[in-house]
Structure formats: C-alpha cells, structure tokens
Amino acid sequence: xxxxHIQENNSILNKFISxxxxxxIQKDSLRFRRNIERIxxxxxxxxxxxxSYTNVDIKTPLGTSREKLISNDVVLCSILRxxxxxxxxLLNYFDDAENGFISAYRHHPNNNADFEIVxxxxxxxxxxxxxxxxxDPMLATGQSLVAVLEAIxxxxxxxxxxxxxxxxxxxxxxxxxxxxxxxxxxxxAAIDEELNDKGYIVPGLGDAGDLAFGEKL
Length: 217
Ligand code: URA
What we know:
Elements: E1 2-5, H1 13-21, H2 29-48, E2 53-59, E3 64-70, E4 74-80, H3 83-93, E5 98-107, E6 116-123, E7 131-135, E8 138-139, H4 143-151, E9 160-169, H5 170-177, E10 185-192, E11 194-195, E12 201-202, H6 208-213
Parallel strand pairs: 1-10, 4-5, 4-7, 7-9, 8-9, 9-10
Antiparallel strand pairs: 2-3, 5-6, 11-12
Helix pairs in contact: 1-2, 2-3
C-alpha cells in the first residue's frame, strides 16, 4: 500500500481539519459536513495526480487546445453514513464517476466493547478493471474497510484501489496495509496516534456520523 499523508505538508487543508476537530465549531453540522466535503475535494485533487491521462483535442471559439484528460473509469464507493459528505466532495471533482454505497456497522454481540463489522447493504455497478475510490472518513480499526474489500469481490476486480480517508489511527492503517493489493493507495489527511477502548480515534473528532447527521438510537 502506498500511503499519502497529506497533512505532512502545510496547506489550507489544516484549517478544514482543525474545524472538524474543534469541539465548538464541529457542533455546527452544516459547517461540519461542508468541511468534510472540502477535505474530499482536496484529497480528490491530490489523488487525481496518480491517475492516467490521455490527450484530447478541445475545440475553443478560436482554435483547438490539446488537453490531457483522465482516462480511468472511476467508481466512487462510500461507506454509509459518515461517508456521504466525503463522497459528495469527491463527486464534486469526479463528476462523471459511477457510484456505489455500502452500509457497514459495528455489531456488538455481547453488549461490550467487542464488535464485528456487518456489511448489510451494497449497491454498486461492476468495478471490474475500473479505478475504485473507496471513501471511509474515519479509518479507526480498519475492520470496515477490510469487510468492504471482501464484499466488493462479487462486483469484479478493480484495476486499482484508492482509499480516501480524513483521519486515521496508526493501528488501523497498520491493520489494512497488507490486506489490500500492493498497488492500493491510501489518501489520508491526518494520522492520529491512538484508539480508545471503544475504537474511537484519539484525539480524532468524535463520531463523524453523529456530527454530520445527528445522533442515532
Ligand atoms: N468512527 C468515528 O466516527 N469516529 C471515530 O473516532 C472512529 C470511527
């Protein structure tokens, strides 16, 4: 796996990340969603540099301009529900991508901190030989991404996978590293040190789904 830790270099991205982490600012859910979307746009721009390009002649009012345009067939798949604003940010730039949605949740069979990931819903086009962008904003334990990798097998084998994440924990990244094909890229804005005993990233930001869409039962 090739890891791109985008906050390693300072940019306007730092402002978006600090706002989603800030315990006061993050309470404005409209701003929270929009910041995640803006982060999706930045990560999408960064990952676009790794895609394939082909020359296309574009007719202007005054002549012809040869432009290099992305030639990959992009399928954008997001893990519900926290992935939705990140999905929108990526879709703002990859506006002709096909789309897929996956619901994966933590099931606590013994009502304690132990959980397994259940993939319940998966709606996607074929991904065979296509470029799969997999959006999961919080890469905590990494278990949902691995469960999704298993579940997508029936949709074909992608040519390449780009995982797009906002904040990840070191242990989660370590966990997924060898489970995805070697040519997989991880585009991650921020990497945090720890997970707490409930599987939340520390310092992280809290529950991204709740902050974007409200608490659930
Ligand atoms: N999901 C979240 O929303 N936050 C975390 O810290 C971990 C998983």
